[in-house]
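haha ok so turns out i had the wrong file open the whole time. this is the CORRECT one, sorry everyone. sequence first:
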Amino acid sequence: MDTIDEEIIRCVLRNARSTYAEIGEAAGLSAPAAKRRLDRLVATGAIRGFTALIDTRALGWRTEAYVEVYCKGNPSPAELQRDLEGIPEVVEACTVSGAADAMVHMLAKDIAHLEQAIQRVREAPVIDRTESVIVLSRLLDRPRL
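then structure:
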């Protein structure tokens, strides 16, 4: 990974639909050279895929919460991931240090929808209990590098 690769990654983070010419311009390459470099980044796994970022407010999902998850026993991260993947309101999940075993970021259309989704999280076999905080306002929302 060199500075040219980093520029390519920055470009596709800003707009995954950038043309090879746009990527090349950002990285100081020709369009064919940009395509080769981008293809290599994909082949090596440095870029795992391209996606559309959906404004969940357009779907009506305006209620947001962070949920601390406490597990029964000592399940593996893979077991926890498997149980959370089937809940579409879970938009991010990670294991964490501290008292909780995991932190889950959830989106829903309203409080009733959120409550139903949290209940589905609680019903997962490996989960003992949860503690939730509801987001009042989003202060920063940056793309990840």
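The chain has a mean pLDDT of 92.
again sry for the mixup
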